[in-house]
């Protein structure tokens, strides 16, 4: 405790109590506030004065026009953009056209594996917002069947479920039944 300099705590103005600016609308003090869109400066006279200013300017320097591409909805050029969940491809006519596509190359879906739950859709590879691949029925939202591991078009020998999944275990890759009520696991597969 003897090494603490008391001069640091006796300063007249604390850094967090600093006055930012004066509101250009009403002359009130601007205060640091937070919202779901991020931090901003807002007038202390709110709600009578609704002035606000972003604390951090959005950087659109990463937005690049992709020459030779065309939006399937409106015909304008497509752009590579940075969003909340990473890079994506969007229409340059935003906000009038809201077409977007994924910037990542599409993972190959399993070849023609029908959804065992609804028997109408096919299982397709999808990515969560965290980048993890899962396999879900393409008839969503009518069918919400999904598995986390790669599906294999083989019926389960124990319960008869229409597919198995390829699961990595400590012993190696195994074919496993995705049904919770079934505990079928194949012997470890030999990799070629």
TrEMBL record:
It comes from the Bacteria. It comes from Agarivorans aestuarii. PANTHER family: DNA TOPOISOMERASE (PTHR42785:SF1), DNA TOPOISOMERASE, TYPE IA, CORE (PTHR42785). Coiled coil: none annotated. Keywords: DNA-binding. GO terms for molecular function: DNA binding. Transmembrane segments: none annotated. InterPro entries: Topo_IA, Topo_IA_Znf. This is Topoisomerase DNA-binding C4 zinc finger domain-containing protein. Residues 22-56, 69-105, 113-151, 156-173 form the DNA topoisomerase type IA zn finger domain.
């Amino acid at each position: 405790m003897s090494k603490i300099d008391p001069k640091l705590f006796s300063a007249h103005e604390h850094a967090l109590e600093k006055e930012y600016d004066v509101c250009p609308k009403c002359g009130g003090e601007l205060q640091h506030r937070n919202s779901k869109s991020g931090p901003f400066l807002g007038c202390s006279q709110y709600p009578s004065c609704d002035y606000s200013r972003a604390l951090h300017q959005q950087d659109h320097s990463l937005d690049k026009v992709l020459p030779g591409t065309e939006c399937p909805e409106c015909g304008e050029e497509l752009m590579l953009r940075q969003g909340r969940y990473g890079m994506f491809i969007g229409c340059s006519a935003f906000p009038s056209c809201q077409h977007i596509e994924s910037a990542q190359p599409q993972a190959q879906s399993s070849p023609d594996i029908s959804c065992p739950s609804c028997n109408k859709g096919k299982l397709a590879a999808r990515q969560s917002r965290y980048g993890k691949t899962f396999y879900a029925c393409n008839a969503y939202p009518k069918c919400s069947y999904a598995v986390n591991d790669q599906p294999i078009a083989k019926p389960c020998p124990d319960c008869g479920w229409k597919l198995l999944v390829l699961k990595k275990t400590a012993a190696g890759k195994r074919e496993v039944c995705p049904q919770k009520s079934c505990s079928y696991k194949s012997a470890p597969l030999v990799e070629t």
